[in-house]
Amino acid sequence: MVRNAEDKWFQAFSYIVLGIVGLVAVVPMLYVLSVSLTPFAVVLKQGGYVLFPQELTFNAYRKLIGTSTIPRSLGVTVYVTVVGTAINLLLTTLVAYPLSRKQLPGRNVFLLMVVITLLFSGGIIPTYLVVKATGLIDSLWALILPTAVSSFNVLIMKSFFEQLPEELFESARIDGAKEFGILFRLAVPLSLPVMITVGLFYAVGHWNSFFAAIMYVTDRSLYPLQVVVREILMLSQQPLENAEDQVPTVTMQMAAVMFASLPIIVVYPFLQKHFTKGMLLGSIKG
């Protein structure tokens, strides 16, 4: 394929823009990682800016793991993420599949109710009163149940179900399959890409859960990881008598940020193929 000068200039411009965007995304994470792995004396010597660590130390990570707060909050976050994502996927599937069936009585009314929630919400105070009235305050269920179903994810999954061949469902009904059997034995296995995509949306949301914990949880033993990281970041830096014997606040801050971000960063590349496919096939039609 022969490219003219205009195409070459456009390609070069695209590479430059994408390179700048990539640097904007990568450099802050590289800085955080480098500071967390660099001795505090070296950080001070370089004016607080370390892009590539010249000396490596894992003191900040050892101290974080050695405390009881970080492992406990990590366990809380993992529990909320795993259990919450499972509940999210189950309820979202049970809502999206019936809405994708045109023979459902009152389908347009139910669909309108789902769409309305994208534009309007009950607000923070009414939601808090509902959570309090149901006895969820100071429990991990307060971090799971109020966001059990996302209308946006319901519409994504509904659009994916609608693209499955109707003949498959008709054949299953002729063979005597019931709707629940069709859903879990036929529709769900064929919808793995959108399941992974929606599941990743929910999992990232639970992993980064911060505001809900601040609103509904006062018991510090139930704080998720993001709240503990925020407390570490808010700590004022105290003067140190011996920088070699103590882990300074700045390195602990950077280590805490990496500790909270690394799991999602590691998991995402393995799901990227399914994530992209699910977004394209399950996109909402205009």
Describe this structure in words.
This protein is 70% helix and 0% strand. With 286 residues, it is an all-alpha fold. It is globular, with a radius of gyration of 24 Å.
Q: What's a quick, concise take on this entry?
A:
With about 290 residues, this protein is mainly α. Helices cover about 70% and strands about 0% of the residues. It contains 13 helices and no strands.
CATH 2nd-level architecture of the largest domain: Orthogonal Bundle
Number of helices: 13
Would you report the number of β strands? 0
Strand content: under 5%
> Which outline best applies?
globular
Alpha-carbon distance between the two ends: 33 Å
Q: Could you describe the largest sheet, including whether it forms a barrel?
A: none
Structural class call reads mainly alpha
CATH class of the largest domain: Mainly Alpha
What level of helicity do the residues show?
55-70%
What is the mean pLDDT? 81
CATH superfamily of the largest domain: MetI-like
According to CATH, the fold-level topology of the largest domain is MetI-like fold
Number of domains: 2
Give me the Rg, rounded. 24 Å
- Uncertain spans, ≥5 residues at pLDDT below 50? 236-248
Order of helices and strands: HHHHHHHHHHHHH
Could you name the key traits of this structure?
ABC transporter permease; MetI-like; mainly alpha; 0% strand; 286 residues; transmembrane; cell membrane; MetI-like fold; 2 domains
